[in-house]
């Protein structure tokens, strides 16, 4: 049984390696680790391109491949791991490089990986569950692994696929600027899951099925949840309310959960499965951070479109979610380098960027600032927060407005989304 699976997956490996490939932004930085004896752990949501990324990292090496998310397997707990290693050796020879796909499906996988690592194997793992990093890896592989997060395409990766060459000079031409903004509009609505982008699929349908698969495999099945409809409702509700504040108690009341403890537990499962992100309020006081409402964001805008219950898109919410995810893809870790903020007068700042202990930038996201009341609201919040946090880099990301505003001794830069996305300094 295992022999036929290994042989079939070898064919899958060769087929994937032969396909056209969009080079990922992180690839150059990660290549230097391939020869290292550290275990390379590639984490991210299902269908975000982790497997192809891992395969391309190893391209040019002789390496074995096995996918634990194969439906032909009899049940992961029944796999004879000694037999598996024997079959891999027969098919691939004596290579010390092995790629294990969706390793979290193997019970007690960390013990198996530890054994192979001690035996001198160079291992690359992929997993669709964030707790791999925080729990099993931290416990069993401390100091012997390097985590690499792969999320759906960022905007520059999408432009690579579309073979669009950006330049500042092009943006002086109205037709070129309109073309770039057309790509952003599509990205804002359809998101960056590779199959959506490369096959020009509509997100509704494909991502509906993906959401259900993630919910079943990575949440309901993994955590043995009996009331699957409840967590389905919770996931859909959060996706439809992206960039909104929440508390477990308020969600429990809204969705008729008996316990806010259950809601908090289910929230952790959805975050682990890379469906949503939770953003804390920035404060130097730990109690304030813990007691304040959190904000929810979705791993990809396509999921927001796919699960939307409203009839027309909310461009403001979509744009804020896009900016959040681009900040994450650029390496800003939520609740470590990325927060939201409330001033003493309860004015909200969408994003606080920290480097080490220091706040370095405040960002507001506003789709349309043509209304003077909207501009006044955003600038007041930034000026007030800038004074409280002693920060002068104040930014409003807009759809198309570009200007510098000097007010009350502060300088606020209004930056069009296209320019913000293409600026390497971000």
Mind explaining what this structure looks like?
The protein is an alpha/beta fold. Among the domains are: 2-149, Rossmann fold (3-Layer(aba) Sandwich); 321-426. Helices cover 46% and strands 18% of the residues. It is built from 18 helices and 14 strands. The strands form three sheets. A six-stranded mixed sheet has the order 9-10-11-12-14-13, with helices on both faces. Helix 1 crosses helix 4 (81-92) and helix 12 crosses helix 13 (260-272). The longest helix is centred in the middle third of the chain and has 21 residues, at 203-223. The protein is globular and about 70 Å long. The model has no long low-confidence stretch (mean pLDDT 93).
Descriptive labels:
alpha/beta; Rossmann fold; five-stranded parallel sheet; 18 helices
Give the assembly state of these chains: single chain
Structural class: alpha/beta
Low-confidence runs = none
Mean pLDDT score:
93
Radius of gyration: 23 Å
Say which CATH homologous superfamily of the domain at 2-149 is assigned. P-loop containing nucleotide triphosphate hydrolases
Strand percent estimate: 15-25%
Please work out how many helical segments DSSP would assign.
18
Task: State the shape.
Answer: globular
Cα distance spanning the termini: 50 Å
What is the name of the CATH architecture of the domain at 2-149? 3-Layer(aba) Sandwich
Going across the biggest sheet, name each strand in turn. Answer: 9-10-11-12-14-13
Q: Roughly how much helix do the residues carry, as a percent range? A: 40-55%
State the CATH class of the domain at 2-149.
Alpha Beta
Largest sheet: 6 strands, mixed
Tell me how many strands there are.
14
According to CATH, the fold-level topology of the domain at 2-149 is: Rossmann fold
